[in-house]
Specification:
Radius of gyration: 28 Å
Strand content: under 5%
Number of helices: 12
Largest sheet: none
GO biological process, one term: Gram-negative-bacterium-type cell outer membrane assembly
Distance between the termini: 100 Å
Order of helices and strands: HHHHHHHHHHHH
Organism: Ferrigenium kumadai
Keywords: Cell outer membrane, Lipoprotein, Membrane, Palmitate, Signal
Protein name: Outer membrane protein assembly factor BamD
Helix content: 55-70%
Function: Part of the outer membrane protein assembly complex, which is involved in assembly and insertion of beta-barrel proteins into the outer membrane.
Amino acid sequence: MRHSLAVFLLLTLSACSLLEPLPDGSAQVKQQSAEEIYGLAKTELNDGNYEQAIKLFESLQSRYPYGRYAQQALLEVAYANYRHGEAEAAVSAADRFIKQYPNNPHVDYAYYVKGLANFNGEIGVLRSIGGQDPTERDPKAAQDSFAAFKELVTRFPDSKYAPDSRLRMQYLVNALAKHELHVASYYLRRGAYIAAANRAQGVLTQYPNSPSTRDALEIMVQAYDAMGMTDLRDDAKRVLTKNTPASEAAAAETKPGKSWWQFWK
């Protein structure tokens, strides 16, 4: 009798250990397979219930830490956090996936989500904001986004995410160049001519194919002229002339009261 009672208690405790509820309390996880939990999480994700989906994917990872569902769940956590507006958490999950599963066939997607999270989360910081000192804006997220997209297109040029990544890279290049141009202009207006010339020079060296290069040359001409550095001013002016359509240069030269390169004054 005592032996039967002990067996009964052991089985009861074992059964209880399997009855851990889901985060919403509606079901029980440990009775379900990794595939079933993954299916529930995907349903929540597709329905836009990102917070709930994240909890389910994380539960799957903790209960079944090995196998393809655990790997896929980590990718889905990155994506769900991105859609939920949690850029830092999305980047963290994507980085974990890249580090833990560098040979996974979907690692290109991890780079893509990482790039998207920073792109959507911070690109607005690079736009002009009235009354704000442009030197106080931090373009790091955009730089990180560019780096993630660049890694994707370099390592996986044939990835289905590569074409969109290239387009976003071009946008980021133009936005980052414009940010540097705002900073250079800010320094120029305040008489910090060396800083203005250096930041404008940075646009030419770092973002040579962006639309901001001509404006950067304009700033360099003004900064060097203000410092009396005529040789550097004339060099910048010559480069600018070569990159200015003849019709625009002629119109600028005939504008009364200003030299053609002094558009900022």
